[in-house]
Design brief:
The chain has one domain. The chain has 287 residues and is mainly α. The two termini are 36 Å apart.
Length: 287
């Protein structure tokens, strides 16, 4: 990778990592699904001008938006409300091992012992983190974040079948479709939406701007651009920096504490994630 590509790749974990902390702050003003509908609505209105409507794939995109955005972000961010950003960002890394497991079960991809070992390490890390005494009253939030990771993985398998659509097209139209879904469910299960919008101050709207434009439009556009010009194996390790930037953001913006159990569990999860994505060579017989 060139220096420019490396610098671009660093944008992704930085923008996404700080997005978790800012989302938690934003949920003090906006309910989770309302905040997500604002985020995706603005991002979709920006991105939709750069791609044509893929009418023949709208049914698939509707389902992907519902599973991979509306349900996934609803679970993840309701979980984020009950635990600190550092813990949530580490748990979200289970998306990789869960995706590998579902790929084996659904797409019949070969698992292999290194990936199986990686999954075991990752889930062991979750047990270490969830076993912390301070999380004894927040296990429901931990379960919500992990459930969100499962729905994210399901959506990625569905996206992998849309070979003819570009990443920007999928991102733009999933955002457009997910916005009314999130807003409708918000109106059903949440309250005080209009009051929170009217009373929001400049800081609150700055957070919405960051989540929609910086985190979603720029962050994901850079990611999809790199996927087109670089090998996945070269850029995927940069996502390993995501928990680090999230932890830094949590400490700086929310004064969160980093515990020993989080460190041990985080190392186990990240090692497991690395084993899941590394391409291992099969042993060959030497004559």
């Amino acid at each position: 990778m060139s220096i420019n590509q490396i610098l671009l790749a660093l944008i992704v974990p930085i923008t996404w990592g700080f997005g978790y902390a800012l989302t938690k702050i934003g949920m003090d003003q906006f309910t989770p699904l309302l905040l997500m509908s604002l985020r995706f609505g603005i991002a979709g209105l920006i991105l939709v001008w750069f791609t044509k409507p893929p009418w023949e794939y709208m049914r698939e995109l509707f389902i992907i938006a519902f599973i991979g955005s509306t349900i996934q972000y609803g679970l993840t961010y309701y979980g984020l409300k009950g635990i600190d950003v550092s813990t949530a960002s580490i748990l979200v890394q289970l998306e990789g091992p869960i995706l590998a497991l579902l790929s084996t079960l659904i797409l019949k991809e070969r698992l292999g012992w290194p990936r199986a070992l990686g999954m075991g390490l990752a889930f062991t890390g979750v047990v270490v983190i969830a076993g912390e005494p301070r999380l004894s009253d927040s296990l429901d939030s931990v379960a919500l974040v992990i459930s969100g990771a499962v729905f994210w993985a399901i959506a990625q398998i569905m996206i992998s079948r849309l070979k003819s659509l570009s990443g920007i097209t999928i991102l733009a139209w999933v955002a457009i479709i997910a916005t009314p879904q999130m807003l409708l469910i918000s109106l059903v299960i949440e309250d005080g939406q209009w009051e929170s919008i009217k009373s929001a101050n400049l800081i609150d709207w700055s957070i919405v701007f960051y989540l929609s434009f910086i985190m979603t439009v720029i962050g994901y556009s850079v990611w999809y651009h790199l996927l087109r010009i670089c090998d996945v194996s070269k850029i995927s390790p940069f996502l390993m920096l995501l928990p680090i930037t999230s932890i830094i953001a949590g400490i700086v913006l929310l004064e969160e504490q980093f515990t020993l159990a989080m460190g041990i569990g985080g190392v186990l999860i990240m090692t497991g994630v690395a084993s899941t994505f590394i391409k291992w060579r099969e042993p060959t017989n030497q004559l």
